[in-house]
Write a structure and sequence with these properties.
- This protein has five helices and seven strands; from the N terminus they run E-E-H-E-E-H-E-H-E-H-E-H.
- With 196 residues, it is an alpha/beta fold.
- A seven-stranded mixed β-sheet has the order 1-3-4-2-5-6-7, with helices on both faces.
- The longest helix is centred in the middle third of the chain and has 16 residues.
- The protein is globular.
C-alpha cells in the first residue's frame, strides 16, 4: 500500500448525505483533542492532509480520505463540554448512525490519550464496539509526552480501567516520533488484503 498516495475525498455532516459504501472503511474515533488529525497525517505520511486544530471540537463532519482500495474515515471528536447541547447531540447521532449503518467498516481505530485514564465517553465507545462485535484496536496517543516509568504505570492502569483489555490489540503511538506508525499500517494492510 502506498501510504503517500492518500487524498482527501469528501466530508459529510449528515448521514443522509453519504453515498453508498463501495470499499472497506477504517474509522478513527476518539474524544476531542486526542490527536486524531495528527495521527492520520502521520499514518498517511502527510503534514496537513487532515486539518489539525488547537481548538477541541472543531471537526463536526466525518472526513473521508481515499487510499487505494480503502477509505480512512475521521469521525468527529466526542466529549468536548463547551459545545452546545444540540450540536453535541447531532455529533453523537452522526457517529452512532455511521457505526450502526450497513457500511463496510473493516476496523475502528479507537484513540485514547495515553496520559489520562479513559473518559466515560471512551469507555462507552469501547463497550459499544465490544457489544456490537465490531473489530477495533486501541491506539494510545501522545506516547512521547510521558517518561518511561510514567508510561509503564499508565499501561498497567489501563489494564484495570478498560474492560477485556488483555483481549484488545493496542498500540502505543506518537505523532512526533512516529512510534506505532508501522504497526498500525501493517494492521490496516492486513485487513484490507483480507477484504479484497
Amino acid at each position: 500500500m502506498n501510504w503517500n498516495n492518500a487524498k482527501f475525498f469528501t466530508s459529510f455532516g449528515k448521514l443522509s448525505q453519504m453515498p453508498e459504501a463501495d470499499r472497506p472503511e477504517f474509522a478513527f474515533s476518539g474524544r476531542s483533542n486526542v490527536g486524531k488529525s495528527s495521527l492520520i497525517n502521520k499514518l498517511l505520511g502527510r503534514k496537513a492532509l487532515a486539518r489539525v486544530s488547537s481548538v477541541p471540537g472543531k471537526t463536526v463532519t466525518i472526513n473521508f480520505y481515499e487510499l487505494e482500495n480503502i477509505y480512512i474515515a475521521d469521525l468527529p471528536g466526542y466529549g468536548y463540554a463547551k459545545t452546545a447541547k444540540d450540536l453535541k447531540r447531532s455529533w453523537s447521532d452522526l457517529i452512532g448512525g455511521y457505526l450502526a449503518s450497513d457500511r463496510d467498516i473493516a476496523l475502528v481505530v479507537q484513540l485514547i490519550d495515553m496520559r489520562h485514564a479513559p473518559s466515560a465517553d471512551d469507555l462507552q465507545m469501547i463497550d459499544y464496539l465490544i457489544e456490537n462485535e465490531m473489530p477495533f484496536v486501541i491506539v494510545f496517543t501522545k506516547a512521547d509526552k510521558l517518561k518511561p516509568n510514567a508510561r509503564r504505570e499508565r499501561m498497567a492502569a489501563f489494564a484495570d480501567e478498560i474492560p477485556s483489555f488483555e483481549d484488545i490489540t493496542h498500540i502505543e503511538f506518537s505523532a512526533v516520533t512516529g512510534e506505532g506508525v508501522d504497526e498500525l499500517r501493517s494492521i490496516i494492510e492486513e485487513i484490507s488484503a483480507e477484504e479484497e
